[in-house]
Amino acid sequence: MTWASLDLDQRVIDVLQGLEYINPLISQLESIPHILSGNDVFVHSPTGSGKTIIILATILQQLVQQPDFQTVILVPTHELASQTFTVFRETLEIAKQQNISYKTSLLLDEQSLILPFSNIVISTPFLLSKNLFTYEKTGFLVIDEADLMLQMMQETALRSILAKISAKTQKTLLSASLDDDVENFKLFSLRSPILVNLSAAKEVGGNQIQQYFINYVDTTEKFLYLYSLTKLRLLQGNIIIFAKSQKQGYRIHLFLKTFSMNSIVFDPKMPQNIRLQTLSDFNVKGGIFIIAGKSEEVDASRGLDLNKIDFVIAFNCYSSAIDYQHAIGRCCRGINKNGSSYLFVEYGKDDANLVTIQNSLKEQFQSIELFPLELSELQAFKYRVRDVINRYDDKAVKVHITQQVKQHILQSDHLKSLVQSEIDQTMLKKIKGNKVQQVAQLPDYLLNAARSLKVKSKVGSSGMSGFATMARKRKEENMKKKKDLKKAKIAAASGWKKDKGRIAPPPK
Protein backbone atom coordinates (compact mmCIF):
# COMPACT_ATOMS: atom_id res chain seq x y z
CA MET A 1 0.00 0.00 0.00
CA THR A 2 1.12 3.55 -0.74
CA TRP A 3 0.34 7.03 0.60
CA ALA A 4 -1.76 7.63 -2.51
CA SER A 5 -4.18 4.91 -1.35
CA LEU A 6 -5.08 7.18 1.59
CA ASP A 7 -6.32 9.94 -0.76
CA LEU A 8 -3.71 12.39 0.51
CA ASP A 9 -2.88 15.48 -1.51
CA GLN A 10 0.19 14.90 -3.70
CA ARG A 11 1.96 17.79 -1.94
CA VAL A 12 1.49 16.04 1.41
CA ILE A 13 2.81 12.79 -0.07
CA ASP A 14 5.88 14.63 -1.40
CA VAL A 15 6.54 16.07 2.08
CA LEU A 16 6.26 12.64 3.75
CA GLN A 17 8.54 11.02 1.19
CA GLY A 18 10.93 13.95 1.53
CA LEU A 19 11.14 12.97 5.21
CA GLU A 20 12.02 9.44 3.97
CA TYR A 21 8.66 7.89 4.89
CA ILE A 22 8.33 6.23 1.51
CA ASN A 23 5.27 4.10 2.30
CA PRO A 24 2.82 4.05 5.23
CA LEU A 25 2.94 1.56 8.09
CA ILE A 26 -0.05 -0.55 9.15
CA SER A 27 -0.90 1.86 11.98
CA GLN A 28 -1.03 4.76 9.52
CA LEU A 29 -3.08 2.84 6.94
CA GLU A 30 -5.72 1.95 9.51
CA SER A 31 -5.87 5.30 11.36
CA ILE A 32 -5.52 8.15 8.87
CA PRO A 33 -8.72 7.48 6.83
CA HIS A 34 -10.87 7.59 9.99
CA ILE A 35 -9.29 10.85 11.17
CA LEU A 36 -9.62 12.52 7.76
CA SER A 37 -13.29 11.49 7.72
CA GLY A 38 -13.82 13.72 10.77
CA ASN A 39 -14.29 10.94 13.33
CA ASP A 40 -13.01 10.96 16.89
CA VAL A 41 -10.39 8.22 16.96
CA PHE A 42 -8.58 6.36 19.73
CA VAL A 43 -5.37 4.81 18.37
CA HIS A 44 -3.78 2.06 20.44
CA SER A 45 -0.49 1.12 18.82
CA PRO A 46 2.88 -0.09 20.17
CA THR A 47 5.75 2.30 20.86
CA GLY A 48 7.70 2.97 17.68
CA SER A 49 4.83 2.09 15.32
CA GLY A 50 4.56 5.52 13.69
CA LYS A 51 1.88 7.35 15.69
CA THR A 52 3.64 10.73 15.28
CA ILE A 53 3.44 10.44 11.49
CA ILE A 54 -0.29 9.68 11.75
CA ILE A 55 -0.77 13.13 13.26
CA LEU A 56 1.74 14.85 10.97
CA ALA A 57 0.09 13.50 7.81
CA THR A 58 -3.45 14.37 8.90
CA ILE A 59 -2.51 17.91 10.00
CA LEU A 60 -0.72 18.60 6.70
CA GLN A 61 -3.76 17.37 4.77
CA GLN A 62 -6.07 19.59 6.82
CA LEU A 63 -3.80 22.61 6.25
CA VAL A 64 -3.86 22.04 2.49
CA GLN A 65 -7.65 22.16 2.57
CA GLN A 66 -7.93 24.97 5.16
CA PRO A 67 -4.79 27.14 5.68
CA ASP A 68 -6.09 28.75 8.89
CA PHE A 69 -6.87 25.37 10.50
CA GLN A 70 -5.67 25.08 14.13
CA THR A 71 -4.54 21.97 16.01
CA VAL A 72 -3.67 21.64 19.70
CA ILE A 73 -1.31 18.79 20.60
CA LEU A 74 -1.06 17.78 24.26
CA VAL A 75 1.80 15.56 25.43
CA PRO A 76 2.66 14.35 28.96
CA THR A 77 6.18 15.77 29.38
CA HIS A 78 8.29 18.82 28.50
CA GLU A 79 10.80 16.61 26.67
CA LEU A 80 8.19 15.09 24.38
CA ALA A 81 6.67 18.53 23.74
CA SER A 82 10.06 19.88 22.69
CA GLN A 83 10.75 16.89 20.44
CA THR A 84 7.30 17.05 18.82
CA PHE A 85 7.89 20.75 18.12
CA THR A 86 11.23 19.87 16.48
CA VAL A 87 9.48 17.37 14.17
CA PHE A 88 7.05 20.04 12.92
CA ARG A 89 9.76 22.69 12.67
CA GLU A 90 11.97 20.44 10.54
CA THR A 91 8.98 19.36 8.44
CA LEU A 92 8.17 23.01 7.68
CA GLU A 93 11.38 23.41 5.66
CA ILE A 94 10.27 20.62 3.31
CA ALA A 95 6.60 21.65 3.39
CA LYS A 96 7.45 25.17 2.16
CA GLN A 97 8.88 23.62 -1.01
CA GLN A 98 5.38 22.21 -1.64
CA ASN A 99 3.69 25.56 -0.85
CA ILE A 100 2.43 24.32 2.50
CA SER A 101 3.04 26.82 5.29
CA TYR A 102 2.09 26.91 8.95
CA LYS A 103 3.03 28.47 12.28
CA THR A 104 3.91 26.35 15.30
CA SER A 105 4.03 27.43 18.96
CA LEU A 106 5.69 25.56 21.81
CA LEU A 107 4.45 26.42 25.30
CA LEU A 108 6.82 25.16 28.01
CA ASP A 109 6.62 27.98 30.57
CA GLU A 110 3.81 29.31 32.70
CA GLN A 111 2.65 32.49 30.99
CA SER A 112 -0.24 34.87 31.59
CA LEU A 113 -0.11 36.22 28.05
CA ILE A 114 -2.37 35.07 25.26
CA LEU A 115 -0.44 33.16 22.59
CA PRO A 116 -0.51 34.65 19.07
CA PHE A 117 -2.40 32.58 16.52
CA SER A 118 -0.58 29.43 15.46
CA ASN A 119 -1.74 26.55 13.30
CA ILE A 120 -0.15 24.08 15.70
CA VAL A 121 0.11 24.59 19.46
CA ILE A 122 2.16 22.05 21.44
CA SER A 123 2.21 21.89 25.24
CA THR A 124 1.49 19.82 28.34
CA PRO A 125 -2.01 19.86 29.87
CA PHE A 126 -0.79 21.60 33.03
CA LEU A 127 0.97 24.47 31.25
CA LEU A 128 -1.71 25.06 28.63
CA SER A 129 -4.45 25.12 31.29
CA LYS A 130 -2.56 27.95 33.04
CA ASN A 131 -2.38 30.01 29.83
CA LEU A 132 -5.06 32.45 28.67
CA PHE A 133 -5.31 30.52 25.43
CA THR A 134 -8.58 30.73 23.50
CA TYR A 135 -9.86 27.67 21.68
CA GLU A 136 -12.29 29.43 19.31
CA LYS A 137 -10.36 28.39 16.18
CA THR A 138 -9.24 24.97 17.42
CA GLY A 139 -10.60 22.33 15.06
CA PHE A 140 -8.46 19.37 16.08
CA LEU A 141 -7.25 18.19 19.50
CA VAL A 142 -4.55 15.52 19.77
CA ILE A 143 -3.80 13.87 23.12
CA ASP A 144 -0.63 11.78 23.00
CA GLU A 145 0.03 9.04 25.59
CA ALA A 146 -3.47 9.60 26.97
CA ASP A 147 -3.31 6.86 29.59
CA LEU A 148 0.08 8.10 30.82
CA MET A 149 -1.41 11.54 31.44
CA LEU A 150 -3.99 9.99 33.74
CA GLN A 151 -1.26 8.10 35.60
CA MET A 152 0.71 11.34 36.00
CA MET A 153 -2.22 13.04 37.74
CA GLN A 154 -2.95 15.46 34.88
CA GLU A 155 -6.68 14.76 34.91
CA THR A 156 -7.61 18.13 36.47
CA ALA A 157 -5.70 20.07 33.81
CA LEU A 158 -7.25 17.95 31.05
CA ARG A 159 -10.75 18.58 32.38
CA SER A 160 -10.04 22.32 32.42
CA ILE A 161 -8.98 22.31 28.76
CA LEU A 162 -11.80 20.04 27.57
CA ALA A 163 -14.37 22.28 29.26
CA LYS A 164 -13.20 25.21 27.11
CA ILE A 165 -13.09 23.34 23.81
CA SER A 166 -16.13 23.24 21.55
CA ALA A 167 -18.08 19.99 21.48
CA LYS A 168 -17.60 20.02 17.70
CA THR A 169 -13.80 19.89 17.98
CA GLN A 170 -12.45 16.65 16.55
CA LYS A 171 -10.29 14.61 18.94
CA THR A 172 -7.68 11.91 18.49
CA LEU A 173 -6.19 9.99 21.41
CA LEU A 174 -2.92 8.08 21.04
CA SER A 175 -1.65 5.44 23.42
CA ALA A 176 0.88 2.62 23.42
CA SER A 177 -1.07 0.70 26.08
CA LEU A 178 -4.78 0.20 26.45
CA ASP A 179 -6.26 -0.05 29.94
CA ASP A 180 -9.09 -2.56 30.26
CA ASP A 181 -10.98 0.06 32.26
CA VAL A 182 -12.30 2.17 29.38
CA GLU A 183 -14.24 4.20 31.94
CA ASN A 184 -11.08 6.25 32.45
CA PHE A 185 -11.41 7.64 28.94
CA LYS A 186 -14.94 8.98 29.35
CA LEU A 187 -13.54 12.30 30.54
CA PHE A 188 -12.22 12.96 27.02
CA SER A 189 -15.83 13.27 25.77
CA LEU A 190 -15.23 11.43 22.51
CA ARG A 191 -18.15 11.41 20.05
CA SER A 192 -18.88 7.86 18.83
CA PRO A 193 -15.14 7.13 18.80
CA ILE A 194 -13.54 4.63 16.48
CA LEU A 195 -11.01 2.36 18.19
CA VAL A 196 -7.97 1.43 16.11
CA ASN A 197 -6.34 -1.30 18.18
CA LEU A 198 -3.04 -2.41 16.70
CA SER A 199 -1.29 -4.99 18.85
CA ALA A 200 2.27 -6.06 18.08
CA ALA A 201 0.78 -9.14 16.38
CA LYS A 202 -0.62 -6.93 13.61
CA GLU A 203 2.77 -5.34 13.15
CA VAL A 204 4.42 -8.65 12.18
CA GLY A 205 6.64 -7.97 9.20
CA GLY A 206 7.35 -4.46 10.40
CA ASN A 207 9.96 -3.38 12.91
CA GLN A 208 10.43 -6.62 14.83
CA ILE A 209 13.50 -6.94 17.00
CA GLN A 210 15.30 -9.93 18.47
CA GLN A 211 14.64 -10.14 22.21
CA TYR A 212 16.98 -11.83 24.70
CA PHE A 213 17.08 -12.32 28.44
CA ILE A 214 20.26 -12.74 30.49
CA ASN A 215 20.31 -14.77 33.70
CA TYR A 216 22.67 -13.73 36.51
CA VAL A 217 23.09 -14.67 40.17
CA ASP A 218 24.92 -11.68 41.69
CA THR A 219 26.09 -8.14 41.00
CA THR A 220 29.47 -9.25 39.63
CA GLU A 221 27.85 -11.49 37.04
CA LYS A 222 25.40 -8.75 36.14
CA PHE A 223 28.13 -6.22 35.40
CA LEU A 224 30.24 -8.91 33.73
CA TYR A 225 27.52 -9.41 31.14
CA LEU A 226 27.21 -5.63 30.72
CA TYR A 227 30.99 -5.50 30.19
CA SER A 228 30.76 -8.14 27.46
CA LEU A 229 27.98 -6.29 25.64
CA THR A 230 29.71 -2.89 25.75
CA LYS A 231 33.47 -3.06 26.28
CA LEU A 232 33.94 -6.30 24.34
CA ARG A 233 31.74 -4.73 21.68
CA LEU A 234 29.25 -7.51 21.17
CA LEU A 235 26.92 -4.59 20.50
CA GLN A 236 28.08 -1.87 18.14
CA GLY A 237 25.70 1.01 17.64
CA ASN A 238 23.53 3.30 19.73
CA ILE A 239 22.55 1.71 23.05
CA ILE A 240 19.96 2.64 25.68
CA ILE A 241 20.42 1.28 29.20
CA PHE A 242 17.38 1.49 31.49
CA ALA A 243 18.40 1.70 35.16
CA LYS A 244 15.89 1.41 37.99
CA SER A 245 17.12 4.43 39.95
CA GLN A 246 19.32 7.50 39.87
CA LYS A 247 21.93 5.73 42.00
CA GLN A 248 22.11 2.68 39.73
CA GLY A 249 22.27 4.84 36.61
CA TYR A 250 25.28 6.80 37.84
CA ARG A 251 26.97 3.62 39.05
CA ILE A 252 26.72 2.23 35.53
CA HIS A 253 28.12 5.54 34.24
CA LEU A 254 31.13 5.25 36.57
CA PHE A 255 31.64 1.61 35.60
CA LEU A 256 31.70 2.40 31.88
CA LYS A 257 33.90 5.45 32.42
CA THR A 258 36.50 3.33 34.21
CA PHE A 259 36.78 1.22 31.07
CA SER A 260 37.07 4.37 28.89
CA MET A 261 33.56 4.09 27.50
CA ASN A 262 31.76 7.39 27.09
CA SER A 263 28.09 7.50 28.01
CA ILE A 264 25.40 10.09 28.61
CA VAL A 265 23.20 10.02 31.71
CA PHE A 266 19.61 11.20 31.43
CA ASP A 267 18.58 12.07 34.99
CA PRO A 268 14.82 12.75 35.36
CA LYS A 269 15.58 14.67 38.57
CA MET A 270 17.67 17.27 36.73
CA PRO A 271 16.11 20.62 35.69
CA GLN A 272 14.22 20.72 32.41
CA ASN A 273 16.87 22.63 30.43
CA ILE A 274 19.53 20.07 31.42
CA ARG A 275 17.29 17.17 30.39
CA LEU A 276 16.57 18.74 27.01
CA GLN A 277 20.28 19.40 26.39
CA THR A 278 21.09 15.79 27.31
CA LEU A 279 18.54 14.50 24.78
CA SER A 280 19.86 16.82 22.10
CA ASP A 281 23.46 15.69 22.71
CA PHE A 282 22.53 12.03 22.37
CA ASN A 283 20.40 12.47 19.25
CA VAL A 284 23.36 14.25 17.61
CA LYS A 285 26.29 12.18 18.89
CA GLY A 286 24.76 8.78 19.65
CA GLY A 287 26.65 6.25 21.79
CA ILE A 288 25.45 4.86 25.13
CA PHE A 289 22.45 6.55 26.76
CA ILE A 290 21.77 5.69 30.41
CA ILE A 291 18.30 6.49 31.74
CA ALA A 292 18.66 6.85 35.51
CA GLY A 293 15.23 5.85 36.80
CA LYS A 294 12.09 7.94 36.42
CA SER A 295 10.26 10.68 38.28
CA GLU A 296 6.64 11.74 38.67
CA GLU A 297 7.23 14.18 35.80
CA VAL A 298 9.25 11.99 33.46
CA ASP A 299 8.86 8.35 32.43
CA ALA A 300 11.63 7.98 29.87
CA SER A 301 10.40 4.66 28.48
CA ARG A 302 7.34 6.53 27.14
CA GLY A 303 7.88 10.27 27.41
CA LEU A 304 10.98 10.55 25.23
CA ASP A 305 11.52 10.34 21.49
CA LEU A 306 14.98 8.92 20.87
CA ASN A 307 16.33 8.52 17.36
CA LYS A 308 18.38 5.77 15.74
CA ILE A 309 18.43 3.26 18.59
CA ASP A 310 20.04 -0.07 17.76
CA PHE A 311 20.02 -1.86 21.13
CA VAL A 312 18.06 -1.64 24.37
CA ILE A 313 19.39 -3.01 27.67
CA ALA A 314 16.90 -3.33 30.53
CA PHE A 315 19.29 -3.66 33.47
CA ASN A 316 16.48 -4.90 35.74
CA CYS A 317 13.57 -7.24 35.10
CA TYR A 318 10.18 -5.55 34.82
CA SER A 319 7.25 -6.76 36.91
CA SER A 320 4.84 -5.58 34.19
CA ALA A 321 4.83 -6.89 30.63
CA ILE A 322 3.48 -3.53 29.43
CA ASP A 323 6.37 -1.61 31.02
CA TYR A 324 8.82 -4.03 29.39
CA GLN A 325 7.25 -3.55 25.96
CA HIS A 326 7.36 0.23 26.31
CA ALA A 327 11.09 0.04 27.06
CA ILE A 328 12.05 -2.22 24.17
CA GLY A 329 9.76 -0.21 21.91
CA ARG A 330 12.48 2.46 21.93
CA CYS A 331 14.53 0.12 19.73
CA CYS A 332 11.84 0.03 17.04
CA ARG A 333 12.64 3.65 16.24
CA GLY A 334 16.19 2.68 15.23
CA ILE A 335 17.42 2.54 11.65
CA ASN A 336 19.04 -0.84 12.35
CA LYS A 337 16.59 -3.54 11.30
CA ASN A 338 18.69 -6.08 13.20
CA GLY A 339 18.27 -4.28 16.51
CA SER A 340 17.91 -6.33 19.67
CA SER A 341 16.97 -6.00 23.33
CA TYR A 342 18.50 -7.53 26.47
CA LEU A 343 16.53 -8.09 29.68
CA PHE A 344 18.58 -8.82 32.83
CA VAL A 345 16.88 -11.45 34.99
CA GLU A 346 18.07 -12.44 38.47
CA TYR A 347 17.90 -16.18 39.19
CA GLY A 348 15.11 -17.07 41.59
CA LYS A 349 13.97 -13.50 42.25
CA ASP A 350 12.68 -12.58 38.77
CA ASP A 351 11.48 -15.98 37.52
CA ALA A 352 7.76 -15.18 37.88
CA ASN A 353 8.15 -11.80 36.15
CA LEU A 354 9.97 -13.44 33.24
CA VAL A 355 7.13 -15.96 32.81
CA THR A 356 4.61 -13.08 32.74
CA ILE A 357 6.59 -11.33 30.01
CA GLN A 358 7.03 -14.55 28.01
CA ASN A 359 3.29 -15.29 28.12
CA SER A 360 2.44 -11.76 27.03
CA LEU A 361 4.85 -11.95 24.09
CA LYS A 362 3.49 -15.36 23.09
CA GLU A 363 0.01 -13.84 22.73
CA GLN A 364 1.52 -11.33 20.29
CA PHE A 365 3.41 -13.96 18.29
CA GLN A 366 6.74 -12.86 19.71
CA SER A 367 9.30 -14.55 21.91
CA ILE A 368 12.23 -13.78 24.18
CA GLU A 369 15.19 -16.17 24.14
CA LEU A 370 18.07 -16.91 26.49
CA PHE A 371 21.12 -14.92 25.39
CA PRO A 372 23.54 -17.45 23.86
CA LEU A 373 26.67 -16.53 25.78
CA GLU A 374 28.23 -18.87 28.33
CA LEU A 375 29.41 -17.31 31.57
CA SER A 376 32.45 -19.59 31.52
CA GLU A 377 33.69 -17.73 28.44
CA LEU A 378 33.84 -14.50 30.46
CA GLN A 379 35.79 -15.78 33.46
CA ALA A 380 39.03 -14.18 32.24
CA PHE A 381 37.45 -10.74 32.72
CA LYS A 382 35.73 -11.42 36.03
CA TYR A 383 38.45 -10.12 38.36
CA ARG A 384 38.64 -6.79 36.51
CA VAL A 385 34.88 -6.29 36.66
CA ARG A 386 34.66 -7.27 40.34
CA ASP A 387 37.50 -4.92 41.25
CA VAL A 388 35.83 -1.98 39.51
CA ILE A 389 32.33 -2.44 40.94
CA ASN A 390 33.77 -2.84 44.44
CA ARG A 391 35.33 0.62 44.14
CA TYR A 392 31.99 2.30 43.61
CA ASP A 393 29.90 1.85 46.73
CA ASP A 394 26.94 4.07 47.60
CA LYS A 395 29.22 6.78 48.98
CA ALA A 396 31.31 6.93 45.79
CA VAL A 397 28.17 7.09 43.65
CA LYS A 398 26.79 9.93 45.78
CA VAL A 399 30.03 11.87 45.28
CA HIS A 400 29.81 11.23 41.54
CA ILE A 401 26.22 12.54 41.38
CA THR A 402 27.29 15.70 43.22
CA GLN A 403 30.15 16.16 40.76
CA GLN A 404 27.79 15.78 37.79
CA VAL A 405 25.42 18.38 39.26
CA LYS A 406 28.40 20.73 39.65
CA GLN A 407 29.36 20.28 36.00
CA HIS A 408 25.81 20.96 34.85
CA ILE A 409 25.70 24.16 36.93
CA LEU A 410 29.00 25.41 35.53
CA GLN A 411 27.88 24.66 31.97
CA SER A 412 24.40 26.17 32.29
CA ASP A 413 24.04 29.96 32.24
CA HIS A 414 20.62 29.70 33.89
CA LEU A 415 21.82 27.52 36.77
CA LYS A 416 25.05 29.51 37.12
CA SER A 417 22.97 32.66 37.65
CA LEU A 418 21.45 31.03 40.74
CA VAL A 419 24.92 30.72 42.27
CA GLN A 420 25.75 34.41 42.35
CA SER A 421 27.87 35.09 45.40
CA GLU A 422 31.64 34.61 45.27
CA ILE A 423 31.41 32.36 48.34
CA ASP A 424 28.91 30.05 46.58
CA GLN A 425 31.06 29.92 43.45
CA THR A 426 34.21 29.18 45.45
CA MET A 427 32.47 26.38 47.36
CA LEU A 428 31.14 24.96 44.09
CA LYS A 429 34.60 24.79 42.54
CA LYS A 430 35.92 22.95 45.60
CA ILE A 431 33.55 20.03 45.03
CA LYS A 432 35.68 17.09 43.96
CA GLY A 433 34.61 13.94 42.19
CA ASN A 434 35.94 10.40 42.34
CA LYS A 435 39.39 9.80 40.97
CA VAL A 436 38.61 7.36 38.17
CA GLN A 437 41.51 5.04 37.46
CA GLN A 438 40.87 3.80 33.96
CA VAL A 439 41.62 0.21 32.99
CA ALA A 440 40.72 0.46 29.33
CA GLN A 441 43.68 -1.36 27.76
CA LEU A 442 43.31 -5.12 27.52
CA PRO A 443 46.48 -7.14 28.14
CA ASP A 444 47.41 -9.60 25.37
CA TYR A 445 46.13 -12.62 27.29
CA LEU A 446 42.73 -10.96 27.80
CA LEU A 447 42.62 -9.85 24.19
CA ASN A 448 43.14 -13.46 23.18
CA ALA A 449 40.27 -14.44 25.47
CA ALA A 450 38.10 -11.82 23.80
CA ARG A 451 39.03 -13.10 20.36
CA SER A 452 38.15 -16.67 21.30
CA LEU A 453 34.80 -15.64 22.75
CA LYS A 454 32.11 -17.42 20.72
CA VAL A 455 28.47 -16.48 20.45
CA LYS A 456 26.29 -19.34 19.28
CA SER A 457 24.01 -17.15 17.17
CA LYS A 458 24.26 -13.78 15.50
CA VAL A 459 23.77 -10.86 17.89
CA GLY A 460 22.44 -7.68 16.36
CA SER A 461 24.46 -6.55 13.36
CA SER A 462 27.85 -6.46 15.00
CA GLY A 463 28.83 -10.13 15.28
CA MET A 464 32.45 -10.38 16.41
CA SER A 465 33.78 -7.46 14.38
CA GLY A 466 34.77 -5.59 17.55
CA PHE A 467 37.19 -8.31 18.58
CA ALA A 468 38.58 -8.57 15.06
CA THR A 469 39.30 -4.84 14.98
CA MET A 470 41.09 -4.88 18.36
CA ALA A 471 43.07 -7.97 17.47
CA ARG A 472 44.12 -6.64 14.07
CA LYS A 473 45.25 -3.32 15.56
CA ARG A 474 47.25 -5.06 18.31
CA LYS A 475 48.82 -7.44 15.78
CA GLU A 476 49.86 -4.54 13.53
CA GLU A 477 51.43 -2.72 16.50
CA ASN A 478 53.43 -5.82 17.51
CA MET A 479 54.63 -6.44 13.95
CA LYS A 480 55.78 -2.81 13.66
CA LYS A 481 57.73 -3.11 16.92
CA LYS A 482 59.42 -6.30 15.68
CA LYS A 483 60.38 -4.66 12.38
CA ASP A 484 61.82 -1.59 14.15
CA LEU A 485 63.79 -3.82 16.51
CA LYS A 486 65.16 -5.86 13.60
CA LYS A 487 66.21 -2.68 11.75
CA ALA A 488 67.90 -1.35 14.87
CA LYS A 489 69.93 -4.57 15.25
CA ILE A 490 71.00 -4.44 11.59
CA ALA A 491 71.97 -0.79 11.95
CA ALA A 492 73.99 -1.48 15.08
CA ALA A 493 75.88 -4.29 13.36
CA SER A 494 76.69 -2.16 10.28
CA GLY A 495 77.59 1.03 12.13
CA TRP A 496 74.47 2.91 11.03
CA LYS A 497 72.46 4.93 13.50
CA LYS A 498 68.77 5.70 13.94
CA ASP A 499 68.01 9.33 13.12
CA LYS A 500 64.54 10.77 13.94
CA GLY A 501 62.60 7.60 13.23
CA ARG A 502 64.53 6.42 10.17
CA ILE A 503 67.76 4.46 9.67
CA ALA A 504 70.49 6.80 8.41
CA PRO A 505 73.87 5.75 6.97
CA PRO A 506 77.00 6.62 8.95
CA PRO A 507 78.74 9.89 7.92
CA LYS A 508 81.45 9.50 5.28
From TrEMBL:
User: Which SMART domains does the protein's record reference?
Assistant: DEXDc, HELICc
InterPro entries on file = DEAD/DEAH_box_helicase_dom, DEAD_box_RNA_helicase, Helicase_ATP-bd, Helicase_C-like, P-loop_NTPase
- Look up the record and report any one GO term of the cellular component aspect: cytosol
Protein EC = 3.6.4.13
Q: Where is the composition biased (Basic residues)?
A: 480-489
What does the UniProt keyword field contain?
ATP-binding, Helicase, Hydrolase, Nucleotide-binding, RNA-binding
Gene3D superfamilies per the UniProt record, alphabetical: P-loop containing nucleotide triphosphate hydrolases (3.40.50.300)
Entry-linked PROSITE patterns: HELICASE_ATP_BIND_1, HELICASE_CTER
SUPFAM superfamilies reported for this sequence: P-loop containing nucleoside triphosphate hydrolases (SSF52540)
The segments labelled Disordered in the record are 464-508
Q: Which residues form the Helicase C-terminal domain?
A: 208-376
Domain Helicase ATP-binding residue range list? 32-196
Q: Which GO terms describe its molecular function?
A: ATP binding; hydrolase activity; RNA binding; RNA helicase activity
Pfam families referenced in this protein's UniProt entry, alphabetically: DEAD, Helicase_C
Q: Which reaction does it catalyse?
A: ATP + H2O = ADP + phosphate + H(+)
Protein family according to the UniProt entry: Belongs to the DEAD box helicase family. DDX56/DBP9 subfamily.
Q: What is this protein called?
A: RNA helicase
Specify the species.
Spironucleus salmonicida
Taxonomic classification, please?
A: Eukaryota, Metamonada, Diplomonadida, Hexamitidae, Hexamitinae
